[in-house]
């Protein structure tokens, strides 16, 4: 990012901020423009003369609607195509919610086809199956302790995992099982060859289950006995984590569950009524070249809000709350009186499409209620785009009575303190 050419200076941004105030005073957002097409007196032309090496043009599109009436408050280039970057995750989230429901929980079952003797030896195999994407080292250590508490100190057979079992969002199937084995049995030959030396002492200090066999991929044997079940947090909390940190791996995993981009594009066009020419998702995470119009994204955000309301939830239950939640919005729109008044998903690609920044969500104001909004920008410095977006939102709130923080308690500390084993 620091190596990007034609970086807009802080002084130029201040001039641009003056232009934002001018544009909003006539209830209009600034339009992306080329300096050659502007009159010398135009504020943006003055900005471009101040920074003579700045980019000749950038692209901007947006739309904002009143949440009560659905009326469009303002729009610019609303049907033109932009790269939404990680705003793509909002469409993925909506389809995931419709398929599973916000209260759905992923279950990871631990079974055996053997028996345990008085010495703590399980004669048989251990089976671990499930597709909870956030299953990781912590859950594996908890499993080792749980098995120890049940009197199981060693297993004579193999460790079987399902093909969709994953560890730490990095390892799936057999690789995931090998990582699990390294935590359960740090002394295992396979684990010794894979674990990092600096982690060895920590792993050896925790509860352990010696496994004599190897890792295999397979389903539990018929007649196997359930030893334990890990029940994940509700889907809405998992999605909240994904959106707060804009986790691309999680989004792609969810994409696999909903049928990939083919299903996602079909859903947005067929179910939401988005014009086919206004959407083309190439990934479910937002990486790469995706195309969506501001008008299409407003429909997605509106549908997401509606889906949540059907389940007595709100956008803040899934999207980052600016200035409060950890993640991509923790340091944005968080100054005094502003924190908690904007719920939004960011999107950033520093190199793709010559620089992309997106911000979509909900603005709360003291004077006129709340508004859904989408701001897309391409072909420019992402840091300048972010500052511009924040200025646009803050000025809009100022013009509508000021920001109105919502009542909200972050969920992440609560998740960290819960026990999900049954």
Write the layout of secondary structure elements.
Elements: H1 10-24, H2 43-50, E1 59-66, E2 72-76, H3 88-100, E3 107-112, E4 115-116, E5 121-123, E6 126-129, H4 137-149, E7 154-155, E8 159-161, E9 166-167, E10 171-172, H5 174-184, H6 189-194, H7 197-205, E11 210-211, E12 215-217, E13 225-231, H8 235-245, H9 248-258, H10 260-270, E14 279-280, E15 291-292, H11 294-310, E16 342-349, E17 356-365, E18 369-378, H12 382-399, H13 412-416
Parallel strand pairs: 5-7, 6-8, 7-11, 8-12
Antiparallel strand pairs: 1-2, 1-18, 3-6, 3-13, 4-5, 9-10, 14-15, 16-17, 17-18
Feature tags:
single chain, 422 residues, alpha+beta, Beta-lactamase, D-tyrosyl-trna(Tyr) Deacylase, Chain: A, 5-stranded antiparallel β-sheet, 5-stranded mixed β-sheet, 13 helices, 18 strands, elongated, disordered N terminus
Question: Summarize this, please?
Answer:
It is built from 13 helices and 18 strands. It is of the alpha+beta class and 422 residues long.
Sketch the major β-sheet: 5 strands, antiparallel
Oligomer: single chain
Question: Into which percentage range does the β-strand content fall?
Answer: 15-25%
The CATH fourth-level homologous superfamily of the largest domain: DD-peptidase/beta-lactamase superfamily
What's the CATH topology name of the largest domain?
Beta-lactamase
Radius of gyration: 25 Å
Total domains, how many? 2
Low-confidence parts, pLDDT < 50 over ≥5 residues?
1-56, 197-202
The count of strands amounts to 18
Averaging pLDDT over every residue, what do you get?
87
């Amino acid at each position: 990012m620091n190596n990007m050419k034609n970086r807009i200076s802080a002084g130029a941004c201040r001039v641009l901020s003056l232009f934002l105030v001018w544009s909003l005073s006539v209830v209009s957002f600034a339009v992306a423009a080329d300096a050659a097409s502007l009159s010398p007196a135009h504020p943006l032309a003055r900005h471009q003369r101040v920074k003579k090496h700045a980019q000749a043009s950038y692209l901007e599109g947006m739309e904002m609607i009143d949440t009560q009436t659905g009326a469009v408050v303002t729009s610019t280039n609303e049907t033109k195509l932009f790269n939404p970057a990680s705003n793509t995750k909002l469409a993925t989230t909506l389809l995931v919610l419709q398929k599973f429901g916000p209260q759905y929980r992923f279950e990871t079952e631990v079974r055996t086809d053997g028996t345990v003797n008085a010495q703590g030896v399980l004669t048989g195999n251990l089976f671990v199956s499930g597709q909870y994407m956030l299953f990781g080292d912590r859950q594996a250590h908890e499993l080792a302790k749980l098995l120890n508490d049940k009197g199981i100190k060693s297993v004579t057979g193999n460790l079987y995992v399902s093909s969709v079992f994953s560890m730490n969002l990095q390892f799936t199937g057999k690789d995931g099982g090998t990582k699990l084995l390294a935590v359960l049995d740090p002394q295992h030959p396979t684990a010794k060859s894979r674990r990092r030396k600096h982690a060895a002492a920590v792993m050896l200090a925790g509860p352990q289950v010696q496994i004599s066999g190897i890792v295999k991929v397979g389903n539990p044997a018929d007649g196997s006995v359930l030893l334990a079940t890990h029940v994940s947090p509700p889907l809405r909390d998992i999605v909240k984590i994904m959106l707060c940190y804009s986790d691309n791996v999680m989004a792609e995993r969810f994409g696999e569950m909903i049928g990939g981009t083919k299903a996602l594009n079909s859903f947005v066009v067929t179910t939401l009524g988005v014009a086919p020419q206004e959407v083309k998702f190439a990934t479910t995470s937002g990486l790469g070249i995706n195309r969506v119009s501001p008008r299409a994204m407003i429909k997605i955000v509106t549908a997401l809000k509606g889906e949540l309301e059907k389940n007595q939830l709100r956008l803040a239950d899934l999207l980052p709350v600016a200035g409060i939640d950890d993640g991509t919005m923790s340091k944005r729109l968080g100054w005094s009186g502003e924190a908690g008044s904007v719920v939004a998903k960011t999107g950033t690609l520093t190199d793709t499409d010559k620089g992309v920044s997106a911000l979509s969500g909900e603005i709360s104001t003291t004077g006129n209620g709340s508004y859904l909004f989408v701001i897309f920008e391409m072909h420019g410095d992402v840091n300048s785009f972010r500052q511009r977006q924040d200025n646009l939102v803050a000025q809009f709130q100022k013009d509508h009575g000021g920001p109105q923080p919502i009542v909200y308690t972050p969920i992440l500390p609560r998740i960290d303190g819960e026990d999900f084993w049954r």
